[in-house]
Design brief:
The complex is a heterodimer of chains A (about 250) and B (about 200). Chain A is about 70% helix and about 0% strand. Chain A has 8 helices and no strands. Chain B has a domain of about 35 residues. Chain B is about 90% helix and about 0% strand. In chain B, helix 2 runs antiparallel to helix 3. The longest helix of chain B is centred in the middle third of the chain and has 136 residues. Chain B is rod-shaped and about 195 Å long. The chains are: A mainly alpha (about 250), B mainly alpha (about 200). At the A-B interface, helix 2, helix 3, helix 4, helix 5 and helix 6 of A face helix 1 and helix 2 of B.
């Protein structure tokens, strides 16, 4: 066995490279973007082919499409209120873009675009800009009272206002890093255990027996990562809804 | 709880990843995600914006309304069925009420008829028994009259027989004829005493 086979390259999997041959290379279209297109096409296909039978008693695919629709619709109405219906398409797009990104990333030879901080930060910035624009358009200058809790003593203003502003500005940071860190951690652990497995297998017959341990861990980890994929997409969407609720109702 | 612990484990793993990223040389250049100078990392965000916006437009204008229309279709179908069921129930209720009313009326009519028949029968019986009573009364009165006449006739005959017998008895006992007037008076007095 060559020496370099024994090093664990846990981060190489996140490296971007161009996809779709020379055309993709000429427009800097990476495999990450290709997976985004795949995810988008899958979401659209689920909705289109799900809604196609138009059956009163739905089949499996239609039930899945309706469940997806109802799940996000209910989330919007529950968290934001009746005004939440306006933001339903946006939250739906966000949730399924993140969810399919997380799930596609679990497939072999695939790529998890949600494991890139640039992507999650761009999504979080979109959310926070939208929230701020919505709040300003609904409440105008009154929006800035959001940074002043009702009934707080005036003497504490120099402390409270900066704290509130910082907590508002830290929303996109926590939103993007939470998703990014979760996805990176999961994929790094996959890679590390898989590398252990190969290194042990390289050690001969006893190594084959020992390699069962990391393999079993990776199997368990896969189930856990499925949970994380859903959970993080849900957290992202729910937090977006909560921020939108604040923007619409101000506290 | 399990999720919280898993999250802590995850944080540790993330720290390991960051340490791996910080550790120089091994994989080359650390975390590829933090290589913001890479033109692919920058282009990735531009493509993300294009793809996400396209997905948003396609979902909100094309795909989601289809699902919404299917859901609306079902809601309408269910509402229509419920309406029909409610209407049918109202009709059934009305029919049941009508039937109950008819039954009640028929019952009342039958009761009235029974009462009338009973009253008529009673009246007929009453008049019949009254007529019978009257006839019997008349017959009794007639009989009593006849009995009284017979009695008077019998009494008259008895007085004559008693007078003659008394005169014969006295004549036989005493051997002398007695005045008829005296005998008459004595017999009348005796009969009157008996009649008392």
């Amino acid at each position: 066995m060559a020496g370099e086979a024994h090093t664990i390259d846990a981060l190489g999997q996140f490296k971007l490279h161009t996809a779709l041959g020379p055309i993709g290379a000429s427009v800097n279209f990476s495999q990450s973007n290709l997976m985004m297109v795949v995810a988008g096409v899958l979401v659209l296909a689920l909705m289109y082919f799900g809604a196609k039978p138009r059956a009163v008693v739905p089949g499996r695919l239609q039930a899945a499409a309706e469940l997806a629709y109802d799940f996000i619709h209910k989330m919007c109405v529950d968290q934001i209120g009746e005004e939440g219906k306006r933001f339903f398409p946006f939250v739906f797009t966000l949730f399924f873009f993140v969810l399919f990104g997380n799930l596609l990333g679990l497939l072999p030879f695939s790529f998890a675009y949600t494991s890139h901080i640039a992507v999650t930060a761009a999504l979080a910035l979109t959310v926070i800009v939208l929230v701020t624009v919505v709040a300003l358009s609904i409440h105008g200058m009154h929006f800035f009272t959001y940074f002043w809790p009702h009934g707080a003593p005036k003497a504490l203003a120099p402390i409270i206002i900066p704290v509130e502003v910082i907590s508002y500005l830290s929303r996109p940071v926590s939103l993007s890093i939470r998703l990014f860190a979760n996805m990176v951690a999961g994929h790094v652990m996959f890679e590390v255990f898989a590398s252990f497995m190969i290194m042990m297998a390289g050690a001969g017959a006893i190594g084959y027996v020992g390699a069962v341990g990391p393999l079993a861990l990776n199997v368990v980890l896969m189930g856990f990562e499925l949970l994380v994929a859903f959970l993080q997409a849900y957290v992202f969407a729910v937090l977006t809804c909560i921020y939108l609720h604040d923007a619409v109702h101000l506290h | 709880m399990g999720i919280r612990m898993a999250k802590r484990g995850r944080a540790v793993a993330a720290a390991v990843a960051l340490m791996l990223a910080a550790a120089p040389a091994r994989a080359g250049e650390g975390m590829p995600q933090l290589d913001f100078g890479n033109s692919l990392t920058q282009a990735q965000v531009v493509w993300l914006a294009i793809i996400f916006f396209a997905l948003y437009l396609l979902l909100s204008k094309w795909a989601l309304p289809q699902v919404a229309s299917v859901l609306e279709l079902r809601a309408n179908a269910i509402a229509g069925d419920l309406d029909a069921a409610r209407k049918a129930k109202a009709e059934a209720d009305a029919a049941a009420a009508e039937q109950a009313k008819a039954t009640r009326e028929a019952h009342a009519g039958a009761q009235a008829e029974i009462n009338a028949a009973l009253a008529a029968a009673k009246a007929a019986t009453d008049s019949e028994s009254a007529a019978l009573n009257a006839r019997l009364d008349a017959q009794i009165a007639d009989a009593e009259r006849r009995i009284a006449a017979a009695r008077v006739a019998a009494m008259g005959a008895l007085e004559q027989v008693a007078t003659e017998t008394a005169r014969d008895v006295v004549a036989r006992l005493t051997g002398t004829a007695i005045d008829g007037l005296v005998v008459n008076r004595a017999v009348a007095a005796a009969l009157a005493a008996r009649a008392q």
